[in-house]
Amino acid sequence: MGALDSVKVAIARRRLLANRIPKDSLYPLETWMAIKAVMTAKSERELKGIIGKKDQTDITRKDFDEYQLFRFREQIRYVKKNTPYYEEKLKDLIPENIRTLDDLNEVPFTLPSDLAEAPFSFMAVSRTKLAREFTTTGTTGKRKVIGYTTGDLIAKVDIISSALRSVGMSGDDVLHIMFPAVDAWDPSIMLAGACRVAGYGSSTCSSPDIKEQMEIMKKNGSTHIIGLPSFIYRVTALMGNEIDLKKLGIRKIISTSEPLSESMREKLQNAWGCNVLDVWGMTEFGLACAIECDKRKGLHTDEANLLFEVIDPDTGKRVPDGKMGELVVTALTAEATPLIRYRTRDIAAMISPPCSCGSKFNRKLVKPCGRMDLQFKVGMGYKIFPLLFDEAVFENKDVIDYQVNITKEGFKDVLTFELESKDQSDGVRDSVIAAVSKIMEIDDGIKEDLIEIPRVIFKEIGSMAYSAKAKKIVDLRENFDS
User: Fold this and answer.
1) Per-residue pLDDT tens digits for 76-111
2) What is the mean pLDDT of residues 219-235?
3) Predicted confidence band of residue 4 (pLDDT cuts 50, 70, 90)
4) I need a surface site. Which of 7, 166, 250, 372 has the fewest CB within 10 A?
5) Mean of the per-residue pLDDT values for the chain?
């Protein structure tokens, strides 16, 4: 590390609230949020009058609701003044009127298509003041541009550092970062930076070559892994027979950027001998937006920087905690690309505190079970999505990857599973067909004579080129209602 880099790291470390978390904190992520709320109250008269001079250990859920509402009002003022998009869209909105969470119903939504059509109208700072730009097409295929100021990047490093601390990382640990085929938004940059500033070790490998991944992991003495679950699973399936993965000393695996099925989680845990924790995030809001604790009963959310809501996708109204709907997120502290009530298209729910891990005020996110823009209808209008099939297909330990093609024969829908499998016997074929046929949506369609018995075609290992966020379901029907 050069002298200039050393100075930059030292400055960043001083700015990190993560480094103010007491060493004996049992709930680092929540403690970090409480510290941020208390420090904000000290510098903001309005919030100080609400929260008072509370210590971080005294913060309650009600206090944090007030913190979030304050941040929301401040962000509305900021975007109306600095972004062309919100200056027009929110011109009639009076920030002072937002006093309760129910008042959020009066604030219009931001759609992914809005951001894709005019990304620079969302920018609140000059592009010359951006430290970095990231692009994403997500699952929609439409390119979106997200800007980050230096302050935005430090805020992301701060939450990532806190999240890594919450999963058990300390100064002696090394995080192996594996995100092959991720170009526009490279999580490796943020993760490696967070480890560097927080004092953790890190190793990065963006190659899809599995043996190269293993060599770098061993060389650096990695103790934790973070990456795409589909790729970590691929590494596990192909290397598990050659070496004993448990002997590598991996203490925790963190799955991010793709849905993690429970059957996949179970196989990873059995192979590596450690817990596998899930993370939810979006390029629009950065990494570590929500992360599981070891209790794995929901994902702890970054409520210091983000406000999470769940709405009825048809009416647009907020729904109570525990009810499934569409996840909506507001960036409370973003400087460059602040998004207000952004409809994520993810299907999820929120869980009220406390958590059995001991966390007392932080609301959790039910692991998103699918995306509205990745749903397809089969049979009598039954909705299917990739995670539905992940659970069934990956029950078989020999399956490495798959794709489902939907076609139509007469009036029946046909689901053909292309399997990349180590064992290509009739036994594997029959087990996958049986598992998929037991899925309620498929089972009902078969009984109604509107869906054919699923079919299986084997592919040679390596013939299905690995790609990040590959489409698991391909609809080849000429006319369909999706």
Assistant:
1) 999 999 999 999 999 999 999 999 999 999 999 999
2) 94
3) very low
4) 7
5) 89
The SS3 assignment for 175 reads strand
**Judgement on whether residues 325 and 207 belong to the same structural domain of the protein:** yes
Q: Are residues 304 and 162 in the same domain?
A: yes
* Contact predicate 302/67, CB 8 Å: no
382 neighbors 444 (Cβ within 8 angstroms): yes
Number of domains in the chain: 3
441 and 467, same domain (yes or no): yes
Spatial distance between the Cα atoms of 367 and 387, rounded to a whole number of angstroms: 11
Give the range of the structural domain holding residue 428, as residue numbers without chain letter. Answer: 375-475
Q: Which of 51, 86, 108 represents a domain boundary (last residue)? A: 108
Residues 264 and 286 in one domain: yes
Those residues with Cβ within 8 angstroms of residue 306's Cβ, 6 or more apart along the chain or in another chain = 285, 289, 329, 330, 331, 332
- Determine, yes or no, domain membership for 127: no
Backbone angles phi, psi at 131, to 5 degrees: -85, -25
Q: Residue 2: what pLDDT?
A: 46
- The mean-pLDDT minimum among 33-42, 98-107, 157-166, 373-382 falls in 373-382
8 has pLDDT over 70: no
The contacts of residue 143 (CB under 8 Å, 6+ apart) are 116, 135, 136, 137
Same domain, 212 and 317: yes
Buried residues in 350-371 as b, exposed as e (16+ CB within 10 A)? bbebebebebebbbbbbbbebb
Task: Give me the residue label for tokens 């190793």.
Answer: 203
Q: Is the pLDDT of residue 72 over 70?
A: yes
Rounded Cα distance between 305 and 37, Å, is 10
Domain contains 129: no
**Among candidates 242, 238, 296, 247, which has minimal Cα distance to 272?**
247
User: Looking at the domain assignment, is residue 20 inside a domain?
Assistant: yes
Residue 171's CB: how many other CB atoms inside 10 A? Answer: 8
- Give the angle subtended at the CA of 259 by the CAs of 255 and 265, to the nearest 5°: 55
Residue 121 domain-assigned?
no
Q: Rounded CA gap, 461 and 423, in Å? A: 10
Burial of 322 (0-12, 13-18, 19+ CB in 10 A): exposed
**Residues 96 and 210 both lie in one domain:** no
Please indicate whether residue 54 or residue 244 has the higher confidence score (pLDDT): 244
Cα separation, 73 vs 55, whole angstroms: 24
Same domain for 70 and 181, yes or no, is: no
In the chain, the percentage of residues whose pLDDT exceeds 70 is 93
Burial class of 297 by CB neighbour count within 10 A (0 to 12, 13 to 18, 19+): middle
Do 354 and 394 lie in a common domain?
Answer: no
CATH at 292: 3.40.50.12780
